[in-house]
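2 proteins. here.
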Amino acid sequence: MTRVKDSGSVDLTNRAIRWGPFFGAESRSLTYEAIPADATGGPLGLVGVGSFDGRSILTGGTTQLGEGCRLALEAAAASHQLRLTIQARTRALFLVERSDDLRLWTPVTEVKQAAESMVIMDSLERDVCCRFYRARQVD
């Protein structure tokens, strides 16, 4: 789980997200983002329990996940090349981008998956302290 909002925290031992305690009667929206273990899409059921002043309320629902992909990176220091491996559904179209600051993104390439796993090479400049990559499905 990532992007837990409103001062929430992830409790990995109990597989829970915890918020609070809260004082006051104002309304709150408590949100988080969950990333599935694999890149396939489809229906996903989520359940949970909210505890309010000692009273537990069951919550849950079903959502439809879109397909995703996995992007793995491997640096080849001697050649100043970065090997990016994309794992996704074949025939899906992805835009691979890079950033040095997570604000401005530059396209590296657009690739149509011809196989379950594809490799793309990118050059590493010596004066860059860090670089980030992402792959977005565009079709």
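next one coming up
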Amino acid sequence: MGGLRNVYHRFAKPYSLILSFIALIKQFMKKKIIAVLGILALCLAGLLTFKTVQKYKKKQAVAIRKQTLPAFQFYNQDLQKFNASQLKVGIPVCIFYYNAECDHCQYEATEIKKHIEAFKNIQVIMVSTNAPTETIQFVNQYQLKGYEFITWLYDKDYSFYKWFGQSVTPSVYIYNKQHKLVKEYTGEVKIAAVLQNLKYDE
């Protein structure tokens, strides 16, 4: 028994030191992991803050830019580029952002047809991501074909948001004779309200 006790005492101390050393390593690694996680959390928070600020700045820049009719560029139904410089100076502009499958857009199209004579001295710009074939069907269905004051544009590159910000369909942007923004509507709107705002500077 004395021999076994001596063997135990011989190895017990080194074993205890090894366990203590392992415990110290674990404690050190735990602190290191917590520190790394803390740094990652700070970096992530900083990145999110930066992106939020950048997004806000872009939104503000668009809001300021569209106060005057933006220098937009879309495509006509023949896939030829059409830009804002092709619009007539001194005539109000009414931009409808629509989608042919949108119920509210279909309602507005019906109302535009009902009040079509009131738009004859307005530059009506109909912008959509619908392909020309879909637009032709929409134009025919709501009897809006053949009106020279209505221009049908194709947002082929999905770039509408660059000029007017994130927009739902339907959205309406009304510019007076000086091509200054008078009013914008998000969602369905009564055409009577649109026409009233078009008379803003008369």
